[in-house]
Write a structure and sequence with these properties.
By secondary structure, this protein is of the alpha/beta class. It has ten helices and eight strands.
Length: 258
């Protein structure tokens, strides 16, 4: 189950993502002409960026949500997208040079099985690249107990949905369990510190905590009241308004060679 859902506040975050800000660790492994499969592509901004960099190669973006794939096709008509299951890609063995997954494994009940399926479709010598955030490593200033409560609620809901929000630190372990013996692990971060960055990041999370799938599930399952969720949203807006506000999102990364 995708914990975030596909509310506009979620997709607004996804559409901000590019190869440069979300897959820089993959850049040394890219060159024109490669065949790349983008797993869990969402609205397709990273996919479209990859397609530009790999032309005249082949790039295919896949996602489990037909609604999101339809939107990606509208926004990026020159890129190929398809609905597919990460556990059963429906693609030939050893048919891709690169398989890329950004912020996907943290939402899966069996990330090792997904990595095995990605490994199956990569040619010998090809790579599987994955990047996932690690929520327990998020850090911010100024301190706010309401944001501490936000983090606890998110982790609780993500795990109730079968995912692992602290996936970043586990990527190396999962890759080895999936059968990869050559794995290069790294880490990088998003940092939101300027007034513009704080407004964007704080506003979208404030909106998520009152109107998105996370908020709906929290209320439905009795994990947080509407007043508590409003307080969390207010905390995000207060953080965004702080002149010394700073927020860092740590990500784990792996390059797994087949």
């Amino acid at each position: 189950m995708y914990t975030h859902g596909h509310h506009e506040s979620v997709l607004r975050s996804h559409r901000w993502r590019t190869v440069e800000n979300s897959a820089a660790y993959l850049l040394p492994h890219l060159r024109p002409g490669l065949r790349l499969l983008d797993v869990g592509c969402g609205p397709g901004t990273i996919t479209a960026d990859l397609a530009t960099r790999l032309a005249p190669g082949t790039v295919l973006g896949i996602d489990a949500s037909a609604e999101v794939i339809d939107a990606a096709r509208r926004d990026h008509p020159d890129v190929t997208f398809s609905v597919a299951d990460v556990y059963d890609l429906g693609l030939e063995d050893a048919s891709w040079d690169v398989v890329h997954a950004h912020q996907v494994l943290q939402h899966l009940a069996d990330p090792v099985a997904a990595l095995r399926e990605m490994r199956r479709v990569v040619r010998p010598g090809g790579i599987v690249a994955a990047r996932d955030s690690d929520y327990a490593s998020f850090t911010w200033h100024p301190a706010d107990e309401r944001l501490e409560r936000w983090l606890a609620i998110y982790q609780e809901i993500a795990r109730a949905n079968g995912g692992e929000p602290d996936a970043g630190r586990r990527l190396l372990s999962w890759a080895r369990q999936a059968g990869f013996t050559r794995v290069d692990a790294s880490a990088s971060a998003w940092c939101f510190a300027t007034a513009t960055e704080r407004h964007w990041w704080g506003s979208l999370w404030a909106e998520r905590m009152t109107t998105s799938a996370i908020a709906q599930q929290a209320r439905r399952e009795g994990r947080a009241t509407a007043d508590e969720l409003t307080a969390m949203a207010d905390a995000w807006l207060s953080w965004a308004a702080a002149e010394d506000g700073w927020f860092a999102v740590l990500h784990g990364e792996v390059i797994c060679t087949r």
